[in-house]
Amino acid sequence: MMEYDLIIRDVTMLDKGYEIQEHVDIAVSGSTITEVGKDIQGTAKEEIKGKGLLAMPGLVDAHHHNAQQLLRAKPIDEYPMIWTRFLVPFESSLTEEDMYISSQLSMLEMIKSGTTAFADAGGPHMGMTAKAAAECGMRGVIARSTMDMGGNIPDSMKCSAEENIRLTCELFDEWNGAGNDRVRIWFGIRQVMTCSWELLEMTSAKAKELGTGMHAHLCEHKDEVSFCLTNYRLRPAELLEATGCLGPNLLTAHNVVLSESDIALLAERHVGTVHCPRSNLTNHGFPKTPRMLQQGLSIGLGSDGAATSSLSLWDEVKVLRNGLIGYWGLPIFDPVVIPYRALLRMMSQGGADAIMQGDSLGSIETGKKADIILLDIDQPHLTPTHNLGATLVEAACAGDVRHSIIDGKVVMKDRKVLTMDEEKIMFEASKAMKQISRRAGI
Asked: What's the CATH code of the domain at 370?
């Protein structure tokens, strides 16, 4: 008789086709799902009873800023420019200890909302984010904030192209593969308006040499497009193509002001694309998501950090669905311009694809990593329902996540995070927020 490390018994499951399967057992050995089926024979060191629960793949926050966790709600109801008035002074004032506390609080929130993996686009002292991820059991793809130009960027946040590459290589050497390979280090391209042509070329070359990825903000707003056309006579995607950055190892976040040719180019180069619905719809506009899906792009979701919202991808997906139907669907009388299955895919497999781990994450299948969340569906806002998959998109929330498993380890059980001291982290974060705000003058 087989012995497993973990068996989830008699659970309702969201399968890889986003259909609901009943009375399923899921067996885990080490960090891997080793069997999925009915009445699995065998014993386990740990067993979770699945009655009243739904098993689904862990969510992937494919564009995040751990550095902005302690900036929560400061930019709300403020006029532009938020970047220069708040984000720059705040990030530039963070110490290593601040970054560690911010990252811990961020990961605590992510775990409690069902996020098991994240991609951080970069901030200061990213070794502290890697350390926090390795300690708490999360899966993280982490980049440095990389900039070498920009008149509104303080010198403390930018350095030469050569120095940027050197610092990321140091971070890579120290942390890439940490935590049983849960931590991966990527190169950052903070923004094409703050990265020179030379830095883009060097970043692309070095990422390819090391076999790692790159994380960039792309076509977030019209100013970026105007900047590139004025300075290079190229659109942002064309600039990244010209400097060798476009390819399967590039994750691009936001993707709002894309032209038809941009979409075709991203699809041709198999670039990972990510939307941040709450950030985008309230600041920059409505992405051409239906068209992107038609062109074959795999799309993930990101929270864009906690500065103006939360880290709940459940909230993000609701905003995206209703926003896209209102903007693209209603004018042409198409209520299924964005099907619920496509949205469920964005929350899991789409994000896994964006962080270049789609073969091992994003669905509950034999051979994939055991990144699994269990939702309490025995609740009046979820049960009964004619369509549980659609109900997840429209009604499920962060607080419905009861257990979380990452890399085969139970990191949250019955809403209690087992790998972190929640009370201590929140206490230290409250103290740090006040100190950072005074220091940053915000």
From this structure: 2.30.40.10
Please tell me whether residues 28 and 175 are part of one structural domain.
Answer: no
Q: Are 95 and 132 in contact (CB under 8 A)?
A: no
Specify whether 43 is located in the same domain as 79.
no
Tens-digit pLDDT profile for residues 107-155: 999 999 999 999 999 999 999 999 999 999 999 999 999 999 987 788 8
Exposure string (b/e) for 24-38, b if CB count within 10 Å is 16 or more?
A: bbbbbbebbbbbbee
Query: What is the CATH classification number for the domain harbouring 219?
Result: 3.20.20.140
Pairwise CA distance, residues 407 & 144, whole Å: 24
**Please, are residues 361 and 368 in contact by the beta-carbon 8 Å criterion?**
yes
- How far the first Cα of the chain sits from its last, in Å, is 62
- Pull the structure tokens for residue 102: 């911010």
Contact between 61 and 119 (Cβ < 8 Å): yes
Phi/psi at 135 (nearest 5 deg)? Answer: -75, -40
Per DSSP bridges, beta strands 416-417 and 409-413 are antiparallel
Cα–Cα distance measured from residue 313 to residue 324, given in angstroms and rounded to the nearest whole number: 16
Interval 9-61: pLDDT, tens = 999 999 999 999 999 999 999 999 999 999 999 999 999 999 999 999 999 99
Range list of H helices, 311-411: 313-324, 340-345, 351-354, 388-395
Q: Is 6 helix (H, G, I), strand (E, B) or coil?
A: strand
- Separation CA 169–CA 209 (nearest Å): 11
Same domain flag for 149 and 283: yes
**E strand or H helix at 299, and its extent?**
strand 299-301
> Which 8-state DSSP code applies to residue 72?
T
Q: Residues 115, 258: one domain? A: yes
